[in-house]
Amino acid sequence: MMNLKDYYRKKNNFFTIRLTILIGFITGIFILNFFLEQKNSKIKFDELALTDSNNKFIEIENGKDVHCSDLSDLNKCLDSYKNTGEKKPVILWLGNSQLHVINEQQPGDEFSSSILHRKLYKLKKYALTFSQPNANLQEHYLLFAYLLNKFPVETLVLPVFFDDMREEVIRQNIKIILEKPQTMKIIKNSFTAKNLISIKNKKNFFHSQSDKEKKNFQNNFENFLNRKLADIWPVWNEREYLRRKFLSSLYFLRNTIFNIKPTTTRKMIKGNYLKNIKAYEDILNLAQISGVDVLVYIPPIRNDVKIPYLLSEYFNFKKEIQKIAYKYESNFTSLESIIPPESWGYKASTNLKKAKELDFMHFKDKGHKLIAEALYIEIKNVLKK
Amino acid sequence: MIFNSLTYVLLLSLVATLYWFLPYKSRLLLIFVSSLIFYGFWKISFIPILLISVIIDWWIAQRLFKYKKKNRLPLLLTSLITNLGLLFYFKYLIFFSNNAIGIANLLGAELDPFGLKIILPLGISFYTFQTISYTVDVYRGFIKPEKDFILFACYITFFPQLVAGPILRAKEIIPQFTQKCLFSFDHILIGLRYILFGLFLKTVLADNISIFVDRGFAIDINNLSAIDVWTLAFLFGFQIYFDFSGYSFIAIGSARLMGIKFPKNFDFPYISSSPKEFWKRWHISLSSWIRDYLYLPLNKKKIENRSVDGFNKSFKSPGNLKSLFITWGIMGFWHGANWTFLIWGIYHAILISLNRLIEPFAKKLSNFSKSVIGVLITLPLIMLSWIPFRATSLSDSLDMWVKIIDPSAYTWLGMRENTYLLSFVVLLAFFTVYLLKQKILPLLNFKKLIVIFLDIFLIAIIFLTVIIFFRSINQFIYFQF
After folding, report:
1. What residue of B is the nearest CA neighbor of A165?
2. Which listed residue, A62, A212, A376, B421, has the most CB atoms within 10 A of its CB?
3. How confident is residue A1, by pLDDT bands cut at 50, 70 and 90?
4. Residue B343 above 80 pLDDT?
5. Distance, in angstroms, between A235 CA and closest chain B CA?
C-alpha cells in the first residue's frame, strides 16, 4: 500500500488517490449488497456438509415434540413429555445428523426417532431423541448429565460414530451446561468436565470478555451504536450471514483445490479421539452410577464403496468401543451393515465442481425404518434384562 | 475503548472533524479531553493514575531544566521511582508477593497468599516508558522541557498511542503539537488507508487466526505432535503480528487524521535474516527505547534518541553479554509479570548472542545466500520464541519446546487439517505480499492503470471484509502489557 502512496505522491496525481479510495469503497459496498441480494435464508451454515439434498428438521410425532437438538429447544420436548400427564420411563437416544436427516426425502417419509417413539410407547416407554450435527461424545456427556435431572431416564441409546471422534468443539447451547450447578455437582470430578473447564479458562487467556465486562458502559454503548447503525444501514444487521457465507465459500474453495470429497480418507486425530473416548467412559460411568441401562451401537455406514477411514483405525475403534462398553456392563451391538446399498443416497456437491457426491452418513426413508426396527428389538432385549 | 469498536469510530470521526475547525489552542484541549474520554471508557478510576504520572513528569522536567547539575539527579530519581513504583505496584506486586510466599513456604513457612486484588491500568507499561523517556531526555539535555501543561499532556495521553504505543519520543511529537497543522486531504486519505489496513489485519486476520490458536493451545500437550507445536508457534506468531501491527497501523492512521505523523512500528519482521534484524523490524519503538534507555547506558555508549532502527547495536566487550541478558530479561518482564515472559526475553538474548558468534562466518556468503539461509534459520527460531509468550505456564512452554527435539513426535498429527492449512496459507501469503510489494510492483514501473486497478481492487476487498468481520469481541493482545 505504501508503494502506491509513494507513486501518487511522486506523480503529483492526488486526484487519482481520492478517486480510487472512493471507487474502492463504493465497489466494496456494491459487492456486499450483491451478496445480500443472493441471500438464501434457508442455508444452515452449521450443517453445510449436509447440502440441500438432505432434508433436516425436528420431528413431531402425533403432536408431540419427541426429537430435539440441545438446550435451545429442550423446553418443547420437556413440555410434550409433561403434557402426557404420565411419568413414563424415558428411553434417551443421543446422536448426530444421521438421526435428523432423511436423504432425498419424499412426502410421507418418516424419521427413525418418530417410528421408535411410537413403537416404544406401546410398551409404556417414552423415546426421546436429541441430535446435533457432528455431535461429539463430550457434548453427549454434558447433555446426558443435564437431561438426567430433567427426565426419568431409564435407558440410554448411544451410537458412537467414528467420524465424530475427530470433533472437539462444544457448541454454545451445550457449553452452557458447564454453568448449571445442579449438573456440575454430578460431573465436576469427571475427566471431561475438568478438561472442558480448563479449556474454557485457557481460552480466556488473551481476550474474550468476562460476563461482568460485557455489562459495562462501553459494551452497552457499543450495542446501542450497533442497533442505530443497523437502523440506518440494513447491511450491518446481515453481517453474521455475510460472515458465514464468506467462510462457507472458503470451505467450498478448499474442497475444490484439494479435491476433498466425502470419499476422502479422514484420519483419526489422536488428541480429540482420546478426549472423546474419555467422555465415552464418563457417560457409561455416569449411567452406571445413576442406574441407567445403556445400549451402545456402532452406527450404520455405507459399505458398498470404500469407507472414508483408515481401515486399521476404524477396526481398532470398534474393538475399543465394544471393550469399554463391556467394562461398564453396558449392552453393545453393531448396526454397521443393516442399511442396504439402495437405501443410501447422494448429496449435492461440497465443492465448486457441482457434481453429486456419495453420502456416507445419511440414509433414505427405508434406512430410518430399518434402524428403528433394529433398535426396537435391541431395546426390548435390554428392557427384558 | 478499543479500536475495533463503533464507539472508537464515532469518537475518532468527531474529534478528527472538530479538530480541523478549531483554533490551535482549542485543538490541544480537544485532544487532551478526548484522550481522557477514550481512556476513561475502560475504567474512570484509571484516569487519576495516568494524570499523576503526567503531572509529576511535567513538573520535574521544569525543575530539571532550572536546577544545577548536582541537584538534578534527585529529581530524576523522584520521577523514576514514582513511575516505576506505580508500574511495580500495579503490574508486579502480586507476582512477586506470590513468588516470595511460594519460596517462604518451600523453606517451611506456612503463609497464605495475600489475596491482593489489583487491576492493571491499561497502557501503564507504555505511558510509563514514554514519560520516563521524556524526563531522561530533559535530564540528558536532549530536549527542553515543555512549559505548556496541556501540550505536554497531549504528548503523553494522545489517544491513538496511549494504550499500546508506538512509544514516542518527545522530540518527534511535541514539535508537531507546537505548530498549527494546516488541513490537507493528504492527511485524511493516508490516515484512512492506514486505519482500514490496520482493521483488516486485526479483525479479518488476527481475530480469525486466534480461533485456531486458542483451540490448539487448549489441547493437552501430550496429545500434540512436534508438527503441531511448530504449527501453533507459526500461527500464534502471525496472530500476534497481525494483531499488534494492526493496532499500530490504526494508531498511525488515527494520528494522521489530525496531521500528526508517527514513525512506523513494524516493517515485515518475519523477513529478517537475523535476530538482530528482527528487532529492527518488530515493535521498533519499544526496541529503540530499550536500546536508548537501557542497553546503551549499560554499555556506556552514545545514545541515539530516536524511536527508529530498533535494537541495532552490538558490542564485543566482555561486559556486554551481561548487559545484553539484563536488557532482555527486563524486556521480557516488561511484557508481563510471569516467568514465561522472562524466558522469552532470555531466549532472545541467546539468539542475539548466537547471531554475533555466527556473524563473521556469514560474511563469507553472498548477499543472496545470506538472506535466504538467514530467513530459513531466523524465522523458525523467532516463531519458537512465541511459545512461552502464549503458553499459560513455564512447564507448558518447556514441554512444547521438548516436543520439537523429540524425533518420535514427528510421526503423527494432533489437530484438524485446517489448522495446518491455515498456517501454510498465511505463511505463503506473507511472503507473497512482501515480494509483490518490494520486488514485483516496482518492476511494473507503476503503470498507471495497473496501479489504479490494483488499488481499487485491494481497497474494495479490504473494506468489505472489514465490514463483515468488524466486531469488538477481542481485545488487542498488547493491551494487557
Report:
1. B416
2. A376
3. very low
4. yes
5. 9
- Do residues A283 and A137 touch, judged by C-beta distance below 8 A? yes
Q: Which residues of A265-304 are buried (b: 16+ CB within 10 A; e: fewer)?
A: ebebbbbbbbbbbbbbbbbbbbbeeeebbbbbbbbbbbee
Among B392, B463, B465, the residue with its CB nearest the CB of A25 is: B463
Q: Which residues in chain A have their CB less than 8 angstroms from residue B225's CB?
A: 270
The CA distance from A380 to B214, in Å, is 45
Question: Who among B41, B210, B413 is closest to A218 (CB)?
Answer: B41
Determine the Cα–Cα distance for residues A315 and B112; give it in Å rounded to an integer: 53
Q: A261 and A337 in one domain?
A: yes
Q: Is residue A323 part of a domain?
A: yes
Question: Peptide bond preceding B166: is omega within 30 degrees of 0, i.e. cis?
Answer: yes
Q: Would you list the DSSP string of B14-63?
A: HHHHHHHHS-HHHHHHHHHHHHHHHHHTT-TTHHHHHHHHHHHHHHHHHH
- Which residues from A are below 8 Å from B412, CB to CB? 270
Is residue A234 domain-resident?
no
Q: What is the pLDDT of residue B44?
A: 87
* 8 Å CB contact of A5 and B210: no
How far separated are the first and last CA of chain A, in Å rounded?
A: 74
Please tell me which residue of chain B has the smallest CA distance to A26: B460
Query: Does the pLDDT value for residue A289 go beyond 90?
Result: yes
What's the pTM? 0.85
Contact residues, chain B, for A24 at CB < 8 Å: 455-460, 463
Angstrom distance (rounded) from CA A163 to CA A359: 13
What would the pLDDT profile of A20-68 be if each residue is shown by its tens digit?
888 888 898 888 888 887 776 655 555 555 555 555 555 566 678 899 9
Query: What distances in angstroms separate CA A318 from CA A32, A313, A315, one per listed residue?
Result: 48, 9, 5
The answer on A57 and A31 residing in a single domain is no
Compute the average pLDDT of residues A343-348: 85
Which residue of A27, A239, A271 is in closest CB contact with B219? A271
- The CB-side HSE value for B269 (13 A sphere, CA atoms) comes to 27
Question: A344 is written with which cell numbers?
Answer: 443410501
User: Given an 8 Å threshold on Cβ–Cβ distance, is A271 in contact with B1?
Assistant: no
ipTM of the complex model: 0.78
In angstroms, what separates the C-alpha of B451 from chain A's closest C-alpha?
A: 7
pLDDT at residue A214 tops 70: no
Contacts of B446 in chain A (CB under 8 A): 7, 11
In a domain, A209, yes or no: no
Q: Is B334's pLDDT higher than 60?
A: yes
DSSP code, position B476 = -
**The three cell numbers locating residue B111:** 503463609
Least confident of A20-34, B101-115, B185-199, B224-238: B101-115
* Whether A14 and A100 share a structural domain: no
The C-alpha cell at B336 is: 508481563
Same domain, A103 and A2: no
User: Mean pLDDT over residues A235-255, rounded?
Assistant: 87
CB atoms near residue B297 (< 10 Å): 15
Domain that holds residue A311: 51-198+241-384
The residue-averaged pLDDT of B120-136 equals 90
Nearest to A25 among B217, B457, B459 (CB): B459
B425 touches chain A (CB under 8 A): no
Position A208 pLDDT exceeds 50: no
The number of distinct structural domains making up chain A is: 2
The share of chain A scoring above pLDDT 70, in percent, equals 86
* Together in a domain, A115 and A34: no
C-alpha cell at B449: 492503470
Residues whose CB is less than 8 angstroms from the CB of residue A61 and which lie 6 or more positions away in sequence, other chains included:
A67, A113, A114, A117, A118
With respect to residue A91, please indicate whether it lies within any of the assigned structural domains. Answer: yes
Instruction: Let me know: does A346 contact A308? Beta carbons within 8 Å.
Output: no
- Which residues of chain B make contact with A17, given a CB cutoff of 8 A? 189
